[in-house]
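Pipeline run #58 for the internal structure catalog. This entry was flagged by the ingest filter as a single-chain record with no existing model, so it goes straight to prediction. Upstream metadata was stripped on purpose; only the residue string is passed forward. Reviewer on rotation: M.T. Logging verbosity set to normal.
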Amino acid sequence: MDHIQLPDRLSSGKWNLYRGTFLLVVSFIWSALDPLTASAKVQSAADEAVRHVNYAPHALHWKHIPAHSILLKELRSGRVLFEHDTEKRLSPASLTKIMSALVILEKARLDELATVSKNAARAPKTHLRIKVGEVFRLGDLLKAMMMVSANDACLAAVEHVGGDEEQFVTLMNAKAAALGLSDTHFSNGCGFDNPDHYSTAEDLAKLSEVAMRNTTFRNLVKAEREIITPVSGYRAYVLHNTNRLLGRIPGVEGVKTGFTSKAGRCLIAKVSQNGSDLLLVILNSNRRWTTAKSLIDYGFRLTNPIR
């Protein structure tokens, strides 16, 4: 966990404000000597001053950054509101399923029928306990993997679309390359820890932006509750979305949670309020929900200062 070093006699807030003021003063002096570049210099200094004030952890009441990596971005302007180690390669856990879902939506139809294999039924960790030989609509498996991170549903969908998981992972990495995700590599389709399975907050933000342009994907990740039933039987599976922000913070539209012992607790969230669209990525945080709430409030204070 990072420690924020403060000057002996100044708080971080005052220090950042003084630094920003100094930059503006220098810029105005320079503009007097070189009027042709005045506008550009003043704007650059103003942007620098705002950047340092915006990133100050004191504004979020943090003594330490509460995650290994954070990215908070306003999508309409492209403005980064807060960032911490956004290029650090980390285990993405079930955030991986965003890429899996995107590949599935591009390569297959949701009404296709997928049969649960022995391998899929034995998937570890989070699962629905679906049975070997059960047949599901691909769209229902997709709901289970995105809403409750069910690894058995994920593997059943991955195997159906790719033929096997290895071939599906090839499709995932090809898609990552096509999107320019240079710090992302997948070794499995559902997010299990592996040294060769990693991404960054920056890459995951890009991936999420692309995925959220897909109407079907958007509908999947914003649903709070669903019921699915295999076409081969009558047993119903009730799905409750693991994203606790849904229904609790106005404007939350998804996107995905994740957790493994190595990755820690992860979250990607998209929130829209008052004409602003925030995208938040949190990787490896022991308190992702309070951290998310603080960052969302902070982001809207910056983008809607009258609020």
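catalog note: The domain at 93-303 is CATH 3.40.710.10 (Beta-lactamase).
catalog note: The mean pLDDT is 85.
status: ready for reviewer M.T.
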